[in-house]
Amino acid sequence: xxxxxxxxxxxxxxxxxxxxxxxxxxxxxxxxxxxxxxxxxxxxxxxxxxxxxxxxxxxxxxxxxxxxxxxxxxxxxxxxxxxxxxxxxxxxxxxxxxxxxxxxxxxxxxxxxxxxxxxxxxxxxxxxxxxxxxxxxxxxxxxxxxxxxxxxxxxxxxxxxxxxxxxxxxxxxxxxxxxxxxxxxxxxxxxxxxxxxxxxxxxxxxxxxxxxxxxxxxxxxxxxxxxxxxxxxxxxxxxxxxxxxxxxxxxxxxxxxxxxxxxxxxxxxxxxxxxxxxx
Length: 279
Hints:
The protein is mainly alpha-helical. Helix content is 68%, strand content 1%. Strands 1-2 form a two-stranded parallel ribbon.
């Protein structure tokens, strides 16, 4: 599972870096970008700060340098954005498919970031961890499950529209819409219950990776100046990577999957002094 985790982490960090570059390029908060909604105050200054922070966090995650703290920061930012910024337009999220998708894309990325943080040791604790007591993985798993079920339901609610996004060379468009919608819901329930959860997560990862290659990449090539197409492509890549990260996390129940670089280890204190416990 180490290779799967590594691949997922690189896909996620590349996507986060790309979103950061978009904020630096635009200098404002765009509706298509999943990190924060377009009505977020503080642009352009805050947009530039967020863009730079995302790129630095992506580099940290890719190189495993204090990656746990970077992943926790991204997860917290996106969760707060969902709760306190997207919720300002709660009615739109309930009744508008586009706004709902944008909100839950951000929540999905938050789930991935928390899950990734849970797979990373802080480099100072050699004790084994268990996914049942690892709060970032538990939180990430819950948020990811909720988002997948919402996306699955949307495939049935907006089947006709989603069918128009499928390339013409792929036959029976509606069948694939309903098939993928069912897959979302079944995978979400599997991850929630733990029944074949790693297999379900890997299936989602493969599905999103195929979407990135077969659906989004051609659309980007056809409209290279369309920022929304670029964003959608890298959201798919991020969720593919996140699904693989979750699969690795759920398949490993005894110890952290990766150890980040955080400098030399601090010597242990004698028993009669303070014990240095990793967060």
